[in-house]
Amino acid sequence: MSKYDQLWQYIANNENGSFELTFEKIAGVPLDHSFLRYKKELSDYGFKVEKISMKNQLVKFAKLKAETK
Q1: How far apart are CA 68 and CA 9, in angstroms?
Q2: How far apart are CA 4 and CA 38, in angstroms?
Q3: What distance in Å separates the CA atoms of residue 25 and residue 42, rounded to the nearest whole number?
Q4: What are the b/e assignments for 24-60, b being 16+ CB within 10 Å?
Q5: In this predicted structure, what is the pLDDT of residue 7?
Q6: Per-residue model confidence (pLDDT) at position 26
Q7: Is 14 helix (H, G, I), strand (E, B) or coil?
């Protein structure tokens, strides 16, 4: 269990292919350097971090493409 579980669930329920969230809107959890360590958990929910803008205080998330076999 990570402090970002609430954020991961919000992202998993998102229907959009990609979207941005501001630092202050990220699940009520202040974004800090530990986010960089935890962001790898996103792949379990079908998303990845596409870009982090410290200047604009935004994180852009993108849906992972389904594997084709």
Answers
A1: 25
A2: 8
A3: 17
A4: eebbeeebeeebeeebeebeebebebeeeeeeeeebe
A5: 82
A6: 65
A7: coil
State the Cα–Cα distance between residues 22 and 45, nearest whole angstrom.
Answer: 20
Query: What is the per-residue pLDDT for 51?
Result: 92
| SS3 category, 59 | strand
CB-CB contact of 41 with 12 (8 Å): no
Domain positions in the chain:
5-63
- One digit per residue, the tens of pLDDT, for the chain of length 69 reads 677 788 888 888 887 788 888 877 665 666 777 788 888 888 888 899 999 888 888 889 999 886 555
> CA 65 to CA 32: how far, in whole Å?
27
